[in-house]
Amino acid sequence: MNKPSAVYLLPRSSYDLIYSGEPAARIDHLVHVLGPVLEPGEALQHTHLLRQAELIFTGWGSLAFDTAVLQTLPRLMMVFYGAGSVRGTVTDAFWQQGLRICSAWAANAVPVVEYTLAQIFLCLKKAHQHAALYRASHHMERLSVACGYGSTVGLVSLGMIGRMVLERLRTFDVKVIAYDPFVSAEKGAQMGVEMVSLEDVFRRSDVVSLHTPWLESTVGMIRGEHFALMKPGASFINTARGAVVREVEMIEALQRRPDLFAVLDVTWPEPPVPASPLYSLTNVFLTPHIAGSMDGECRRMGHLMADELERYLAGEALRYELSRERAEIMA
Hints:
β9, α11 and β10 form a beta-alpha-beta unit. The chain is built from 14 helices and twelve strands. By secondary structure, the protein is of the alpha/beta class. The longest helix has 20 residues. The strands form two sheets. A seven-stranded parallel sheet has the order 8-7-6-9-10-11-12, with helices on both faces. The chain has two domains: 133 residues, 3-Layer(aba) Sandwich (Rossmann fold); 179 residues, Rossmann fold.
């Protein structure tokens, strides 16, 4: 049986993170890889390879599969996207041709969940505030904290990451409440979470964790009035997308209420403008979009694509194939 022909089409730096080593060895054993890794900016100089490709392996930095690119890929059947959202990669032309794509979003979600859980419990202990106070005073002063026992954690949106965070929180002695307009109270009860309004998530929670995708309908969804509702000493965590939050209003709320604390792994714009107060506010813990897969964690995504390739070649249903509708609501 002839092996299908495949091309790695992504920046070499992305290939090295996602596929090099064991994932590539697994993939290369199953398909006939045509040529070297093709950098997106140079891909159209290698149309002799693209015209033979039935499968494409790509990831961060992928070019968009628009009409011009697809004309060079007459045999293309399947794209394996070894990263998360494919919104910048697929196009109307891609879907109209009936092409298929799977994504490693489930693998990329794992470190986001791990980062979120770590920050939730650090926030409940006010670890960031304690560290700053200890460094400044050289005294073992202790602030009043919510602790990890009997506190309330609020989740905004129960997509894949929100649900994974929820599942893990159920093993701790915290109460979890959530807001998601697409999850009924009955469904929430089955998942072990109380569904409440967005306002109540902010009003009742000791820590609020945001997991809402960046869609046209969600831009600016989190407003200053939500921060104003927060309990004294409460914390807000954003590992989703910065554009979901009205950043100016959030900053104003944090300036008015130094008792609040924000852990921001994402902002909009990203990075913040040079004069942004986010760099200097003492009640902000700002990280440069590190919650998702980094370094060795990226291999998990490569292995997931190899797993999907095995299913594809065996004629089995893919676990992480995306429909057009699903792709359009991913973060």
